[in-house]
Amino acid sequence: MTTTKREKSLIVIQLSGGNDYLNTVIPYSEGKYYDYRPTVNIPQNKVIPIDDHYGFNPSMGPVKSLWDEGKVAIINGIGYQNPNRSHFRSMDIWHTAEPDSIGKEGWLGRAIRDIDPQGENVLTGINFGRGLPRAMACPGVSVASVGDLDTYGLFPDVKDEELRMFTLEAFSKMYGGAAGRDPVMELLGQTGQDALQGADILRTAPAMYSSSVEYAPDSLAQNVKSISQVFHANVGARVLYTQHGPFDTHAGELISHAKLWDEVAGAVGCLMDDLKEHGTENDASILIFSEFGRRIQDNGSGSDHGSGGVAFMIGGAVNGGTYGEYPSLAEAEQIEGDLRSNNDFRSVYTGILEDWLGLDAAPIVNGQFEKFDLFKS
Q: Which of these, 349, 364, 360, 373, lies nearest to 10 by C-alpha position?
């Protein structure tokens, strides 16, 4: 079914692997940056300045253009206390909003449940890419995970719906009991029905979409194009998620980090152009985050796992500017050689949930957190 009312949607781009904060928003006027980064630095004359002290990576031209339009919020020093430098654990913390224990539910899964408590729309939450991010996983919440809009669904090559359902039931019996409809069979059967229903709707999205914007051929740009297609099909998708990487730049960072940000900035620039062309740039906001930053000292070729990082909110309804202080590079202020985070990531989640999606944030982020004024009223 297609909704008749345009609700506000959140688009999330996960930078997997630990994006290097220091080489993304660069403290180019700070001598300590060049002292700690004798090799893996961005020269002052290459930085795209945003003021007299900080600037963007030279690969972030499209983001700078959006910054100039007041559509980019930079959240400095984002993270959590007692940082964990494991990719898996740190990302799990971001996904579940549980820094001190192992969470069972993703924060966006909880949000989707609150948006659609009866599970009436199987496309309220959609991931674009393989697998399902833990942020969207929540018992009882159906989330579509789309690798390719043209082939989305279970057994998509089986065209006859009755035959597809027969195939799904046979598949479920392989893993369920022989007698009756056991829980495994019920789960797979419902999953199959949801997938088929979602597939039938999603396959109509590309045909409903027309745009003059040309997206690059890389995987992120194509996933972001799919996000735009589905968003503009107005099927009630409220949370749209994708990821890009690897940002785990231990070696050869200057080349690989530049390429990655060229792809991210290019995809975001195209998406914002697409939204503007369709008159929907105030209806979607983009969150860009990574599980942690990198260490202050370079390792001669790259940078290793660190702590405090940076996040971005981008959109026509975003109050552009910088939020929070850039962490000090002074040795006394560091945490074991890392930037010390000074903004809890759950504060950003709280602002998104309450001021953008209109939800009660506390039960989703597991507590009360001060929020920034990230969105225009």
A: 349
